[in-house]
Amino acid sequence: MRMGILGRKVGMTQVYDAEGNLHAVTVIEAGPCTVLAVRTKERDGYEAVQLGFVDKKRKQASRAERGQVANLEGRRQKRRVSLGQPAVAKANCEPKRYIREFRTEGDEHGLEVGGEVKLSILSEIKRVDLIGLTKGRGHTGVMKRHNFQGQGATHGVKRMHRHGGSIGASADPSHVVKGKRMPGRYGGEQVTMRNISVFKIDAETNMLLVEGSVPGPTGGWVVIRPTKKHGKKEQPTK
User: DSSP for 165-184?
Assistant: First the structure.
């Protein structure tokens, strides 16, 4: 079971530990998250918990988003009641900006729709996986996207200094090889940082400090979950 929590990147800073060593850490505002739905094998075919983070203004939310968290007495809901089917449980909260699901195994945490998941669930976790969306840089050239050196700045290179140069062979194979590094869309991709050390957990302020950097810009959404990675096993002494 890898029950985690949702958060938002606050920024980076430097913190001293008890031994006086300086650490570069990323501060993440993690939770509290509202339980929007609980998936079961009998009804959905799998077990999971759906969490929502940060309220969204009602005027900015669609009817479908509002109906996800509250009973709007829609036609589908009335038809289910008329057929004698049980009503779908709602969290009765404001629509959420960031919604994700976590697969679970059984009802170990006893979470119910409308409940809260706080940072305290990671109190005993030493290492986590962080999932975020990298900064989108749009359409970029090969020097920025692939760290190419570029062409010379000497006499004879006319307005080609940042170009990639030749991209293919001659008559054989007479086509550009697949996977050639060329200009294109750079960034805006989901990245998972695995086995990141937890530096500090402040449950009162919902702040989580982790070692190193985290994908995405300041204010970007982050999924935090316990890691499956394990450190290298100690070699037996001879």
Answer: ---S-BTTB-SPPTT---SE
